[in-house]
Design a protein that fits this description.
10 helices, 8 strands, SDR_fam, Rossmann fold, globular, NAD(P)-bd_dom_sf, oxidoreductase, alpha/beta
């Protein structure tokens, strides 16, 4: 009975999808449908991982006085809970958001809110990223943690002012640029026994992804699901590649990528889940639980020697084979440098 029901539902879903998208060329229709199915599978896998490993999803906050953390986003969702955790650990937090006034209430109500500093940052603009980095390093020449947290998911095709597809720009490329600009400050703060850390907030949604090297902006055919998968995959590949690169330079900086879990936030506003809020309340993690593996990546001492690690529920997560291919990682690094005007030999150097 279960098999018959599953086949019936799948057949109905496929028929509905074809009716809604029959205007597309067959190769694009099939590709989009595959990405949709694969993303649903990745999401289901993420939910199962959360159910199985939720007991591992915990962190004991240290006293991290005199430590400095930079986080992108943070005025809502998971980011707010990461900021809350950092402040509880006595970290001085610099938050980059589009509208700094949105953080006033956080500064007034959170424990140690006086240690929260907010600067303007628009991740759809490389100019804004550079201005933000200049503001940060002028006041804080040493940084212990960089948390590349802000992100967007799905939506229509859009290019940023720099001519980059918006999901790739916000989720990966401009965080890559920010990492380059802040790396001197991260190197300065890092110690052999206690390296600085860069944490890329990725997603299990990377799993169906690949990098469209020949059409990074997906101009030939845009599938918003494939674009999101590409951007989240890029974050994992970048963490792995930069960790190797910095190790080869004997720099005391470690890189990690984190899947926070399937979390009930407004990131899902462009999905059907937004129409089923009760479903999210039942099955999804709270933002607080989603923040836990990110804080784990910042503070856990046992992962110091495991730079490049992809983390889910405070243990090693399952990532796709594409992300582990060193040739793909190098090619992504090179194209990311090209798109941000960085000399690859001078990445992260003054």
């Amino acid at each position: 009975m279960f098999v018959i029901t599953t086949i019936t539902i799948a057949t109905f879903a496929a028929a509905t999808y074809w009716i809604m998208n029959r205007h597309k060329p067959l190769k694009h229709l099939l590709s989009d449908f595959r990405y949709m199915l694969d993303m649903q599978g990745a999401g289901a896998g993420g939910l199962i991982d959360d159910w199985i490993n939720i007991r591992r999803n915990k962190i004991e906050l240290p006293d991290a006085s005199r430590k400095i953390a930079v986080i992108t986003g943070g005025a809502r969702g998971i980011g707010t809970e990461v900021v809350r955790g950092l402040l509880k650990a006595n970290v001085t937090v610099i938050m980059g958001i589009r509208k700094p006034d949105a953080a006033k209430k956080m500064m007034e109500t959170m424990e140690n809110g006086k240690n929260l500093h907010v600067f303007s940052l628009d991740l759809q603009s490389q100019k804004s990223v550079k201005e933000f980095a200049n503001c940060v390093t002028k006041e804080f020449p040493e940084i212990n943690y960089l948390i590349n947290n802000a992100g967007i998911m799905y939506g229509d095709y859009k290019l940023t002012e720099d001519g980059i597809e918006s999901q790739f720009a916000v989720n990966h490329l401009n965080h890559f640029y920010l990492t380059h600009l802040l790396l001197p400050a991260l190197k300065k703060a890092g110690r052999v026994e206690e390296p600085s850390r860069v944490v890329n907030v990725s997603s299990c949604g990377h799993y169906p992804g690949k990098i469209f090297f020949d059409d990074i902006n997906m101009k030939e055919h845009y599938d918003t699901i494939a674009a999101y998968a590409q951007s989240k995959l890029a974050q994992i590949m970048t963490a792995r590649y930069l960790n190797k690169l910095l190790d080869s330079q004997d720099a005391n900086v470690k890189f990690y990528s984190v899947h926070p879990g399937i979390v009930d936030t407004d990131l899902f506003e462009n999905t059907t889940f937004n129409k089923l809020p009760w479903l999210k309340k039942i099955f999804f993690k709270t933002p607080e639980k989603g923040a836990t593996p990110i804080l784990f990546a910042c503070f856990n001492k046992n992962i110091v020697e495991r730079g490049g690690l992809y983390i889910s529920n405070c243990i090693e997560g399952i990532s796709n084979r594409y992300s582990k291919n060193i040739d793909h990682q190098k090619k992504l690094f090179d194209i990311s440098c090209e798109l941000t005007g960085i000399d690859p030999d001078k990445f992260g150097k003054n």
